[in-house]
Amino acid sequence: MIQYIIRRLLVSIPALLGIIFIVFIIARLLPGDPCVAALGERATEEVCAQFIADRGLDKAIIPGLYKLQDGGFELALQDIPGTLLDNQFVLYLSQVATGDLGDSFRYSRPVTEILIERLPTTIELAFYALLFASIVGISLGLIAALRRNSKADVGTMMIATLGVSIPIFVLGLVLQYIFAVQLRGTPFALPPSGRLSPGQQFETIPEAWGLENLDGFVAVVFEFLSNIYTLNFLITGQWGNLVDAYQHLILPVIALGTISLAIIARLTRSSLLEVLGNDYIRTARAKGVANRNVIRKHAFRNAMLPVVTVIGLQLGLLLAGAVLTETIFNLTGLGKTMAESIFSREFIVIQAFTVVIAVIYMTVNLVVDVSYAFLDPRIRLK
User: 0.90 exceeded by the pTM?
Assistant: First the structure.
């Protein structure tokens, strides 16, 4: 098991480098000048020249390839020996290797600080959306498979089809209209945006535990955990804030997780029906094993293998969908910041956020692969 995990981590390194390279090039192919996007009316010719020189944007993108001020590109093969190591891509890799993700042009802050501040919002949203999609989706799939061709089967599959068909931005606006406008003033009303109600005060984990003097890496970790509001309020006992945070999460979680829920439900149904038709299931029933035990001990775990794979893959869909969800529900997380960075030509922020998302995605898929051995003892990870 340990050897398998180490091998997978080593294989992930070239994939991660490839992702960094592709995003690095695409970010620089975006039309427009980052200086003009960052400085606006202050972007005079002299200021922009200094802006580009200070950030090394006048260097070759990769050996011999330059970006011109008019938005075009020039390939100077004669410069390749001199630009083999002195180029933007190599310099960026050397920064990332030291843990420095660069500074934001727009916010004039280190990207690491922005990540610590905004990544927890996206993690919180994606986690609860995946949890919602997995629990409800598997439950609907089980009901549909165990009551094949019944009204329950048809009804759950209609819900799944409807869930796949509705775009996130449409569902999000519909939910806001229903629960924040039509049901306003009723017990069923829900907040339409934000993470907490206006004026709501809360303590961070260090403040609640009397650890205000922390510094260094430990302080960064506690700050990151404190920005995951539900976790912060849960472990510090701020129950009123916890309820408020969950109320604000309900609508964005439903909007983001519905498509994944529908996919998981449909796959659970088809996978379980396939397993129920195998010979060993019929043999177990012929021996007099109770139907509940047949489903729980023999069919369910085997049917979960493809479902678990899809659940892991859904994380990519949820992180992509977070861009729209965070924008609609006014959640300042990774997705919304990424969209703003694309419009403002923030190369550094786009690259850093993409690297973080890629690492999260690879980690989750590694956990999914390792879980196979626990779901099916016949599988050995060697």
Answer: no
